[in-house]
Amino acid sequence: MWGDFKGNIYQDAGATMIMEMDTKLDNQLSEGTSHTTHGPSSKCDQEASKPVDKHLRRLAQNREAARKSRLRKKAYVQQLEVSRLKLIHLEQELEQTKAQCALMSGGANASQHGLARAANSGIATFEIAYEQWVELQNKKTNNLKTALNSDLDDIELDKLIQDTLNHYANLFNIKATAARADVCYLISGVWKTSTERLFLWIGGFRPSDLLKVLVPQLKLLDQQSHDLYNLIQACQQAEDSLSQGMEKLQQTLAEAVACGQDLGGGHYEMRNAIDKLEELVRLVIQADYVRHETLQQTLRNLTTRQAAQGLISLGEYLQRLRDLSSAWTMRLCEPA
C-alpha cells in the first residue's frame, strides 16, 4: 500500500521538492508504515484471540463444575450408605426390644408386673455383659493369633490359653445368672443372632458340633484323633440324656399348666408349673457344664500350640456366624 503511494509522489513532484521533502517524507513513511503494518495487525490478533480465551476459560470452568458435582454426588452416596447401615442397626435393636417385651410381659396384677420388671433388670444386665464378652473374646482371639505367629514361648502362650478358657467360664457364669432371672428368655436364644439360633441347643451350642468344627482345623496325631473321637461320642451321649430330660420337662410342664386348679376369676394354680421352670434352670446350667467340660477336655488332648489354634478357630467360627447374620439382615433390607 505504502509502496504505490510513494511511487505516485515521485512521478508528480519535481526533483527539488523531492530533495527538500526527502528526509521529512521518509520519517513520515517510516512512522506511517509502523502504524499501518504493526498497529492494526496486532489489534486484529488481540481481537481474534479474545473469543478463544473466553472459550477456554468457559471449558475450564465447566470441567471444574463437573468435578465438584461428582465429588458432591460421591459424598451424598456415602452419606446415604452410612444412614442405611444406621437404620438397619436401629431396626435390629427395635426387633430385639419387641422380643424382650413379649417375653417379659406377665399377668395383669401388680405383683406380676413387679416380677417382670425385676426380670427385665436381670436380663438387661446380662445383655450388656454378653455384648462386652463378645467384644473381649474377639480381642483375646486376635491376641492368641498374634502370639502364635510370633516367637512367644509355650509358657507365655499357655497363659493366654488359660486366660481365654477362663473367659468362656465367665460366659457360663453370667448365663447361669440370666437363667435364674428368666430361663425362658435365655433358652429362647433371643440374645443371639439369627444364624446362631439355627444351632441353638438348650441355650447354647452343642458340644459335639463344636468338636466337629474344630477337629478338621487341627493337625492331629493318630492317638489325638482317637481320643477326640471318643470325646465326641461321650458328648453325644450327654447331649442325648439332656435332650430327653428337656422333652420330659416340656411334657410335665404342659401337664402342670393344663391341670392347674381353677382359683376363680380366670386364675389358676401355677405352683407346679413354676416348679417345672425351676427344673429348666438346672437343665440349662447342666448343658453349660457339659459345654465347659468339653472345651477343657479338648484342650487337654492337644499340645500348647494346637490348643491355641483350636481356640482361635473357635473364636473365628463364632464370629463368622455373627457376621453371617449381619450380612443376611443387610441383604433383606436391600431394595428389590
Name some characteristics of this structure.
336 residues; mainly alpha; two-stranded antiparallel ribbon; 10 helices; 84% helix; 1% strand; disordered N terminus
Describe, in short, the structure shown.
Keywords: Activator, DNA-binding, Nucleus, Transcription, Transcription regulation. With 336 residues, the chain is an all-alpha fold. The chain has helices at 2-12, 15-37, 39-104, 110-148, 154-188, 194-197, 207-214, 222-258, 271-300, 304-333; strands at 262-264, 267-268.
Query: What's the number of extended β-strand segments?
Result: 2
Order of helices and strands: HHHHHHHHEEHH
| Computed Rg | 44 Å
Q: Summarize the biggest pleated sheet.
A: 2 strands, antiparallel
Give your account of this protein's structure.
With 336 residues, this protein is mainly α. It has a domain at 123-333. It is 84% helix and 1% strand. The chain contains ten helices and two strands. It has helices at 2-12, 15-37, 39-104, 110-148, 154-188, 194-197, 207-214, 222-258, 271-300, 304-333; strands at 262-264, 267-268. Strands 1-2 form a two-stranded antiparallel sheet. A hairpin with a 2-residue loop joins strand 1 (262-264) and strand 2 (267-268). It is flat, with a radius of gyration of 44 Å.
Topology diagram in text:
Elements: H1 2-12, H2 15-37, H3 39-104, H4 110-148, H5 154-188, H6 194-197, H7 207-214, H8 222-258, E1 262-264, E2 267-268, H9 271-300, H10 304-333
Antiparallel strand pairs: 1-2
Helix pairs in contact: 4-5, 4-10, 5-9, 5-10, 7-8, 8-9
